[in-house]
Every structure is written in C-alpha cells, then in structure tokens.
Design a protein that fits this description.
Layout (H helix, E strand, L loop, with lengths): L1 H8 L15 H15 L6 E5 L4 E6 L2 E6 L6 H20 L15 H15 L3 H14 L1 H4 L4 H8 L16 H17 L7 H13 L25 H20 L3 H6 L4 H10 L9 H9 L6 H13 L1
Parallel strand pairs: 1-3
Antiparallel strand pairs: 2-3
Helix pairs in contact: 2-3, 3-4, 4-10, 5-7, 8-9, 10-13, 10-14
Length: about 325
Amino acid sequence: MSQLLKDIMSKKQTNDTFLFGSFDPQKQLEFSRHLLEKMGFPFSSGRLDLSTHPFSSTLHPTDNRITTRIHPTALMSNILAVLHEGGHALYGMSLPAEHFGTPLGEPISHGIHESQSRWWETRIGKSKPFWSHFYPLLQEYFPENLKNISLDTFYKAINKVEPSFIRIEADEVTYPMHIILRFELEKALIEGSLKVSEIPDAWRAKMKELLGIEPKTDSEGCLQDIHWAMGGFGYFPSYTLGNLYCCSLFSAFEKQHPEWQAHVAKGNLLFIKEWLYHNVHRYGRQYDSIELIEKITGMPFTEKPYSDYLIQKYKDI
C-alpha cells in the first residue's frame, strides 16, 4: 500500500472541492434513508438516528439501531457512514432469528462483520455503477452544489486519495495506514513499552511517519475513536481483515454475477443482499472466518484479491 500511495500522490490530484460546502442536514438524512431502503434495510424493524460517532447495534434480528453523523459542510461523510453501518445492520438482521442466543444466531467474527460494512461502503458505495443510478437523485437534492458536476468528475472526487487525520473518513488506499498506526501503539501499550500519557505524542509521530501529516489536536488524533475508551483492545485489525475478507468474497460474487454492474446501475441492490444472506449471513457461526472464505471462494485465503482490486481501481481512475 505504501508504494501504491506514493505512485498515486505523484500524479495530478483530483479536484474534490465541490464535495465541501453547504449541504442541508435534513436533505442529507432523507437521501440516506433512501439508500438504506434500496439496500433492503427494513425500517419496520430498525431506525436511523444521529450520534457523534456512527454505529450499528443489533439487539435482535428484528431490532437494529443505526446512527450517523451529519457534517453540514462535507457531503460524503454521512453517505459513506450510512452505507457502512447499513452493511453491519443487514448482517445482524439477517442472522437466523430462530437460533438467537446461540452460536448459530451470532456473527462469525468482527472481521467478517467489517467485511459486510466495507462491502457496502466501498465495493458498492464507491463504485461507478452505483452512482450511475444514484447521482442524478443526489443532484436533485443538492442542485446548487452538483448541477454542473459530471458523473465522471463526481466519481473521481469521491475516490480521491489524500492522507487525512480521521480514520472513518479515510480513502481506501490510506485507510490501512490508520490501522497500522493504532495496532502498533496498542501493541506497545500492552507490552508496557508505551505509557498512556505518551499516546498523544506517539500518535503524532507515527502519523507523520506513515502518512506525512501531524494532527494539531487530540480530537483529530488519538481521541477520535471510542475503541480504547470502551475497552475494545484488539479490534482495529478487524477493519483491515474486513477489507481483505470483503474482496475475497466479492471475487466469488463477481463470478456468480458477472452482470452485477448493470443491475446496480439500474438501482437494483436487493440481489446483493440476497447473495450475502445465502453465502454469509444464514450460517451464523457454523464456520470460522477462514473456513467460510474458502468455502465460498473455493480457494485459500490470501491478500491478493484486495491488492488486485486497489491497484486496478486506482490505475483506471
């Protein structure tokens, strides 16, 4: 990823300034609800609300709560958060209700859970076919901002690669660096070679090393995530595993649905939800993560589908 980032940053950078401006919060929420409905999220059994940090919480397959955060000056922040949390929600709500409270009614792992959220956020939500259908509607919601912006320009802008401070808003190429940073600091904390009081300075130094930028405040540095505060040590690598699992699963999905882009370009997303249910969700914890990946793909689990995806996507862009 480091070399890919260097290669991309050596090229002329995409102008994405039109994604930042004034975007009515209520219209953002309305658009987000529409996306969730198209994904197959049943509002009869779930909600979408606001919080400081987006999350999805499945209390039961018939009860899920999603939250997002609205940046009135940054259009894609809420959209991508809702797609991400919607992916989590669809997994939790598709687990076998008849086995609720047993392993067969539980998600396999945090990594597989994150594969579902990254699937909808990146492989679908950052794809050109997806926006071929939804971009005209987004233009109707925000005509003053987007009426003169072409689909191609919009697509390149939402996939712009640029080192940034906030993990959940990072692009696909720099995202792994955010995870490496957290993993290395977490490992040092557990080993005892790093004190809690030293985290802010260590964070700034590691971000400078990995991404070439240095946060000015702890809110855009070590205090941006809730994981350590809630005792979620060891969770961050699940995000990278999620990306890896997602791309392995998607390689199998593409073989079974070679025409998927044409369907998505028409706004048809329910067949994706169905594929994920039949291949991932319905099994509960019948298999572990690697067993499931190998069962679905028929191949040993490797990082190759993930690296191939990123290299090809950004080569085309």
